[in-house]
Structure formats: structure tokens, C-alpha cells
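Morning F.,

Quick status update on the modeling queue. The single chain you submitted on Monday has been processed. Sequence for confirmation:
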Amino acid sequence: MALACAFVRRLTTVRGHARRTIALELARSRVTNEQWWSPRHHRCAALRHLDARTRSHAIARGGEHAMVHALTPCAASAASRASAAARGRGAGRARAMASSGAKYSPLGCRGVFAGDARGRDGGRWCARARRGDCIAREASAVRSPAEVINFEGLQLEMDESGAERVKLQVEGWKRWTWRGYECNYISAGENNDGPIVTLVHGFGAHSYHWRYTIPALARAGYRVYALCMLGYGWSPKVEEEYSMELWGQQVIDFSREVAGATAEDKTFIAGNSIGALAALYAASTAPDSCKGLILVNSAGNFEPDAAPGPEKKTLAQQAVGNADDQGGDTIMDKLREAFGRVTATGIFYFTKVRIKTILQQVYEFDVDDDLVKSIDLAAQDPGAIGTFYQLSLAGSRTKIKPSDLLRDWTGPLMLLWGEKDPWMTPTKAQRILEIKPNAKYVPVLGGHCPHDDCPTASSDAMKAFFADVGA
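C-alpha cells below.
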């Protein structure tokens, strides 16, 4: 699948002051060749033979007359037709339809032409095009960010650039009882005919972190379920013996008991960061109910001689030590545990006041207040401090190696990778590809959480992978 986009830029002068008008016009089409946009070199290869029936979604951000900076004459023509259609039909009812047969292009991620924009215009283009990322939205009209959309009982909203996402709910969403705990999850498109998709978040995150992915996949016909793993988000904060085996088993149980995955109706599983390891555990341990696996900037050490547990210990993991050293009856054991708990508490509060700063370090683009608030809500739980201590011991409790899990999984595999991730760099994806050379590698211009950082490109890549695997 490939995207053809045109940036429309207009410069007018009013009383001596330059006023910039930027419009993003989108055209999606089938492309008969294998050429595609390379964000690394900030240039676009020729995109030819647009489908004559392609429909486009144009978003005008000021001014109807503009000077077109087009990728190709075909793209310019299609974008112009879309813009005219949008003006004539009242704020744009022309939808961009994804074609699943062509090779995926990471052009769609947020901040297209980011390299050119930053070089020419001090980054202002990128800022003005936040989440504009060549959006091919399912929304049928331009909506106010404050407007609430009801989608099969799930409240959605449009962000400031017009991308559709789940609306934050302080009280959480649906509940599922697992081992006596009322765990939270979000679902959409439960009555759709498409395959099941199970989404697994990363460390410190929750089901809401898939806020853009959930409606994008549900509107495309998939049955989508996003879990809050035990100890995270709106699920209970309890002092359990957390490990990758525990979360992986929870994903298996969730996909079967809630999503309804069976041997005849399997689920795709996608996981981000440590959630990717939980997804990998679920897929390799219960392949009879998994149709395909997506690792999104996966955590874990995939070197063949690597020991189980984290690749590099965090400050909290270093402070609390190993799980085997905890819970002893001697005075030294108790002192060691007390020191670990006090240290973990200090790190917890230090992290809590720096949520946005930490997120911004691993995001390529701006972090919004709703995401920060959602993580802070979980940190306000009375059991959050004790849970954080136990979470810090999860790595040392994990006994299985990521490389072994990866070798055990023989089904379809895609690596969706934010290339700007300072933690899980593309070199890790290359290591995974050495073990699984037939895996599909899709780089996007985003950070550690590309599904939220450049959501349109990520959702499109997932849909293309699902289509390739087949129903």
C-alpha cells in the first residue's frame, strides 16, 4: 500500500507580515511499482498509475487558493480534485480508502516531509502538521476536537489535527475478572466480521495507549480488544509476583475468554515494548489461537546467549535487586527489602512528576495532555507504590528467553518499528530479522510508541499486514 500526498503551501503578505497557510491534501492509491517514500533521505520516489477510482480526503487549513508542491502530477491532480470535492460537499466527505495489495510505505507517519520542513522552515511545518501524517481518516467530516462521537457505545473524539481516537474516561472502560481481579479493557467492533485483534500495551501504559489504533481498526472491520494488564492502567494495583510469564498468560486468557479467539477463529496479537514480549509469549505458547504477531518496538534481549530478564536494568530494577533476594526471614533479608522499597518509592515519585518529560524523550512528536493525565491517573491509585516495587522485580522473575520464544513462533510476524526510538533502536529489529528473516519489517517515523506517535502510518501498516496474512 502506498500513499501519494501533496502539501499545499500559500504565502500571502498582509500589511508587511508574512502569513503562512498550510493545507494538507491527501490522495491514496494503488501503485503498480515498488518505489516508495524514504523518510531517511527526505525525498519521494515516483508514484505512478493512480487508481482512477481513488477517493481522497482533503483538509484545508485556511485559504482555497494555494500553490501546489506535488509529489507527482498525478498526485497533484488527485489532491486538487479531492480539495474541490471537499469544498463543494461541506468540509470534505471524500474518504481515503486503503488498498491492501501494494507494498506498505511509511510515508503516512506524522510529520511527512519532516526532514525538509525542519531544514527549510525551522520545524514550523512539522508543528503545524502535527498528526497530519498524511491522514487517511475514516471520519466523514471535519469535526471539532471537543465533539464526542459515539461508536457502538464507545466514546471517540477528534484530536486537534482531526485524527479520530478514543476519548479519555477517568473511570475506565469495560471489566473482565481474571484470577479474582477486575481488569480493564477497551473493545470496539465486536460485531464486525473481520478477524480479532488483541492489543497489548508496554510498561507504565494501559489500554488507552491504543486510543488511535482501536477506532482505526474497528472502522476497517476488525474486532478489536485492548487489555490493561494486571498492575497497569485501570486494572488493580496489587502486589503480585509479576513476570513476563504471568502477563503472557493473561494475554492468552484475555484473547480466549474476552475476545473469543479459538482454533477456528484466531486472533492477531500486537504488543508494544514489554507488551511485545507478553504478546510473543502468548503467540508462541498458544499458537492454536494466534493468527499473526506484531512486535512494536519490542523490549527484550534477543541475543542467543542472553540471560532471561531485561536487556538493561532500569534504576528501579538496580535498586530493588533480584526477586530471589526478597522475602527472606533474616535481618539482612528484611533490611535489603526495606531498602529496596524505600528506594523504589523515591523513584516512583520522581518519575510521577516527570511523566511528560519522560514521554517526550521517547516520542518523536509532541505528547498531549490526555496521555499524560491517563498515566498520572494510574499513579494515583493507593496501591501504585507497592505495585511499582513488584513491577521492578518482574524482570528478575522472568525465566524464559525472548530468543527462545521467537524461535518457537512459526506464524506470520511483522516488526512495526519507530525508527527514532532512543531505547529500542532499529538495530534490535535487525537482530530479530536475523532470527526471523521472513518477518515483515515496517519502519515508521516515530519514537518508542509509534502506534500513538505516528498513528495513521502504524494503523495502515497493521491493516496491510492483516490483509497479507488473509482472513
